[in-house]
C-alpha cells in the first residue's frame, strides 16, 4: 500500500501542471490529494495546493487577515494554521515575511501573552530549520 501511495503521489505531482492548465480546480484537487498521499494533514495539503495555485504570500495574507485576534495562536487551530503556513516556506526571508503578516494582521486587537510565546516558538523553530538547510 505504501508503494502505491508513493507512485500515485508522484504521478499527481507530474500531471498537476497539465491539469492546472486545463482547469485550475483540477490542479488544486491534484495538489491536495498529492499532499495527502505524502502524509501531510488535510490543512497542510490544502495550504500547499492553494499556495501552488496562487504563488507568493496572497494565500497567507488572506488567511491571516480573515482570522486575526488574540486567540489566533492559542488554540490547536491557530497553531495548525500558522504551523502549516510555516511548513510551506523555504527561505529565511519568507519566514520573516510571514511573521510580518501575522503581526500586521493583529495590530488592532493584539496578541495575548500565550499567543506571543507560541509565535516565538514556531517562528524560531522554522527560522532555524531554514537557516541550517
Description:
The protein has about 130 residues and is an all-alpha fold. It has one domain. It is built from 7 helices and no strands. The protein has helices spanning about 1-20, 25-35, 40-55, 60-65, 75-85, 90-105, 115-130. Helix 6 runs antiparallel to helix 7 (about 115-130). The longest helix is centred in the first third of the chain and has 21 residues, at about 1-20. The mean pLDDT is about 75.
How would the blueprint of this fold be written?
Blueprint: H1 2-22, H2 24-37, H3 42-53, H4 58-66, H5 76-87, H6 92-105, H7 113-132
- What Rg is obtained from the alpha carbons, in whole angstroms? 16 Å
- Write down the overall geometry: elongated
How many separate domains make up the residues? Answer: 1
Biggest sheet layout: none
Structural class: mainly alpha
Q: Give the strand content.
A: under 5%
What is the count of helical runs? 7
Summed over residues and divided by their number, the pLDDT gives a mean of: 76
Question: Percent range for helical residues?
Answer: over 70%
The stretches of 5 or more residues where confidence is low (pLDDT under 50) are none
Q: What is the H-and-E element order? A: HHHHHHH
β-strand number: 0
Calculate the terminal CA-CA distance, rounded to whole Å.
31 Å
Amino acid at each position: 500500500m505504501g508503494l502505491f501511495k508513493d507512485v500515485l503521489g508522484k504521478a499527481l505531482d507530474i500531471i498537476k501542471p497539465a491539469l492546472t492548465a486545463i482547469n485550475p480546480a483540477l490542479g488544486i484537487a491534484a495538489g491536495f490529494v498529492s499532499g495527502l498521499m505524502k502524509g501531510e494533514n488535510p490543512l497542510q495539503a490544502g495550504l500547499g495546493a492553494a499556495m501552488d495555485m496562487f504563488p507568493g504570500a496572497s494565500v497567507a495574507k488572506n488567511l491571516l487577515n480573515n482570522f486575526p485576534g488574540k486567540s489566533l495562536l492559542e488554540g490547536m487551530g491557530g497553531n495548525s494554521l500558522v504551523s502549516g503556513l510555516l511548513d510551506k516556506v523555504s527561505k529565511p526571508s519568507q519566514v520573516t515575511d510571514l511573521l510580518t503578516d501575522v503581526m500586521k494582521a493583529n495590530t488592532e486587537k493584539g496578541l495575548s501573552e500565550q499567543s506571543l510565546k507560541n509565535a516565538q516558538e514556531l517562528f524560531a523553530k522554522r527560522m532555524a530549520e531554514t537557516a541550517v538547510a
